[in-house]
């Protein structure tokens, strides 16, 4: 009971730090890379669960990390790329690749099977090393390996692929969302993330002990807005 109260105190106590974790971004001239800055303006050491390898597309009912909604290899903790066309300022809806090149089907299936086999072996080892019994091992592995540690006043920089034709930038796999821009409008974009306290239920008590020098971030991140240029095919 005492352990749970301590964790609850850490999470609730962080709510006033929500506005002190900032994020900014820009897109390179070739529109291939998004350069992102994450910085901690507070005097606290903070952990932010964030996938710094990929963006994810906007969905009106955005995916959450739960066992029922879990999808292997989907970047749940990736920053969401929000794009809207002024003056309407409505999020451009995400399109989903609905066709499969049948000539590539066997190759894609073989690649996916290989990735899954390697990942299953890794998860089995992870469960043993971390004594994971009461939480979902796949979710635990993903969260623990995507924690960003920010010391007080610290700033980190990272870059992710910027690809409107395949926002998660996966060669194969689930939910390869893309955006179709109207080149007659001024398209504006920003990055966002919503970190819910419920994701911390997938971290074991022993793992929480190792993180006790940091506050666990709960809240929303929202970057600056920037123009997203529409490249027309010639």
Comma- or semicolon-separated keywords:
six-stranded mixed β-sheet; globular; 234 residues; alpha+beta; three-stranded antiparallel β-sheet
Question: How would you explain this protein's 3D organization?
Answer:
- This protein is of the alpha+beta class and about 230 residues long.
- About 20% of the residues lie in helices and about 30% in strands.
- The chain contains 4 helices and 14 strands.
- It has helices at about 1-15, 105-130, 135-145, 205-210, and strands at about 20-25, 35-40, 45-50, 50-55, 80-85, 90, 95, 145-150, 155-160, 175-180, 185-195, 215, 220, 225.
- The strands form 4 sheets. Strands 4, 5, 6, 11, 13 and 14 form a 6-stranded mixed β-sheet that branches. Strands 1-2-9 form a 3-stranded antiparallel β-sheet, with no helix packed on it. A 3-stranded mixed β-sheet has the order 8-3-12.
- The chain is globular, with a radius of gyration of 19 Å.
- It starts with a helix and ends in a 7-residue tail after the last strand.
- The model is unreliable at about 1-15 (pLDDT under 50).
Topology:
Blueprint (H helix, E strand, L loop, with lengths): L1 H12 L7 E7 L5 E8 L5 E4 L1 E7 L20 E9 L3 E2 L3 E2 L8 H26 L6 H8 L2 E4 L4 E7 L15 E2 L7 E10 L9 H6 L4 E2 L2 E4 L3 E2 L7
Parallel strand pairs: 3-12, 4-5
Antiparallel strand pairs: 1-2, 2-9, 3-8, 5-6, 5-11, 7-10, 11-13, 11-14
Multimerization state:
single chain
Instruction: Describe the largest sheet.
Output: 6 strands, mixed
Distance linking N and C termini: 64 Å
Task: Based on Cα principal axes, name the global outline.
Answer: globular
Overall residue-averaged pLDDT value:
85
**How many strand segments?**
14
Into which percent range does the helicity of residues fall? 10-25%
Beta-strand residue percentage: 25-35%
């Amino acid at each position: 009971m005492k352990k749970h109260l301590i964790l609850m105190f850490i999470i609730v106590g962080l709510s006033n730090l929500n506005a002190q974790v900032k994020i900014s971004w820009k897109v390179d001239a070739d529109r291939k890379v998004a350069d992102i800055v994450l910085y901690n303006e507070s005097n606290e050491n903070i952990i932010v669960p964030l996938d710094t390898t990929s963006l994810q597309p906007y969905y009106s009912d955005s995916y959450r990390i739960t066992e029922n909604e879990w999808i292997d290899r989907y970047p749940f903790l990736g920053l969401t790329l929000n794009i809207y066309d002024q003056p309407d300022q409505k999020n451009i809806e995400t399109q989903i690749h609905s066709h499969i090149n049948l000539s590539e089907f066997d190759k894609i299936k073989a690649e996916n099977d290989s990735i899954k086999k390697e990942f299953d072996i890794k998860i089995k080892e992870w469960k043993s090393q971390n004594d994971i019994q009461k939480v979902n091992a796949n979710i635990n592995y993903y969260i623990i390996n995507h924690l960003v540690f920010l010391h007080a006043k610290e700033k980190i920089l990272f870059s992710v692929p910027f690809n409107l034709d395949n926002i998660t930038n996966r060669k194969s796999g689930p939910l390869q969302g893309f955006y179709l821009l109207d080149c007659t409008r001024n398209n504006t974009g920003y990055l966002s993330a919503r970190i819910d306290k419920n994701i911390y239920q997938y971290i074991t008590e022993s793992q929480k002990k190792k993180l006790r020098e940091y506050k666990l971030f709960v809240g929303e991140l929202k970057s600056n807005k920037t123009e997203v240029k529409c490249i027309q095919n010639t």
